[in-house]
Design a protein that fits this description.
Oligomer: single chain
Largest sheet: 6 strands, mixed
Structural class: alpha/beta
Shape: globular
CATH superfamily of one domain: P-loop containing nucleotide triphosphate hydrolases
Order of helices and strands: EEEHEEHEHHHHEHEHEEHH
Number of strands: 10
CATH architecture of one domain: 3-Layer(aba) Sandwich
Length: about 240
């Protein structure tokens, strides 16, 4: 479980998160939704130690994260797939996957086979450079690189960004499968609220840095005022 309590983050005079409290239960997908500027990416970057908060606390499976280095947080079993995927274009698919296993207590050969089973297209492309992949294939590679280290918690920032609807559906279904099969705890930041709510167990809605609602995903999806005003979802 990740527990975020009264978290506030500012960039100079600009407040990005204002007294935000969210719990992401173990083995569940928690969607974090909201418009651009809501503070979604800042939330993930703060969890992973890339941004220092002004106040508040974050614990993951009982470990306090505030003040820890990003590499220490990663070794606690928290993997972060940033917006834009972050794969290294000049490396091959397999080289990118092997990078994900660096410093992890995992059998690299077995880990590679697990990712190739989950994403067969990556096995076909394993000797190709990441620059040669499609957007969907790069997202699969980013997920595979994160999962090869066997994380307990996965932070996903806009995995559907720039992808066609059918590819988005495939990626979302894969995330759901990963969570169901491994007991993975997922925090999913998404602007595509409709796709995110379909696969999520819980949802937190942020608006200009404030937490508007933290509820079961089905309740958020059924709330007309949240859908129309904060999420821009039509019927």
């Amino acid at each position: 479980m990740i527990s975020i309590s009264h978290l506030s983050v500012a960039y100079g005079a600009i407040v990005a998160l204002d007294d935000v409290s969210i719990e992401a239960p173990t083995g569940a997908i928690t969607a974090v939704l909201g418009a651009n500027g809501a503070g979604k990416t800042t939330l993930l970057r703060t969890i992973s130690g890339l941004v220092k908060p002004r106040s508040g606390s974050i614990t993951a499976n009982g470990h306090a994260l505030i003040g820890e280095r990003p590499d220490t947080i990663a070794r606690l079993g928290i993997a972060h797939v940033p917006e834009g995927r972050g794969v290294i274009a000049e490396f091959t698919v397999e080289e990118n996957l092997r990078l994900g296993a660096l410093g992890a207590k995992t059998n690299v050969t077995a880990g590679l086979e697990e990712q190739y089973t989950l994403f067969p297209v990556l096995k076909e492309r394993r000797k190709q450079y990441a620059a040669q992949l499609s957007g969907g294939e790069r997202q699969m590679l980013a997920l595979g690189r994160a999962m090869i280290a066997n994380p307990q918690i996965l932070l996903l920032d806009e995995p559907s960004l720039g992808l066609a609807p059918l590819v988005t559906q495939d990626i979302m279904n894969t995330i759901k499968t990963l969570c169901a099969n491994s007991g993975l705890t997922v925090i999913l930041v998404e602007q595509n609220a409709k796709s995110a709510l379909k696969i999520s167990d819980y949802a937190a809605v942020l608006h200009v840095g404030k937490s508007i609602a933290v509820r079961p995903a089905a309740e958020v999806a059924a709330d007309e005022s949240l859908r129309s005003y904060y999420l821009g979802m039509a019927e």
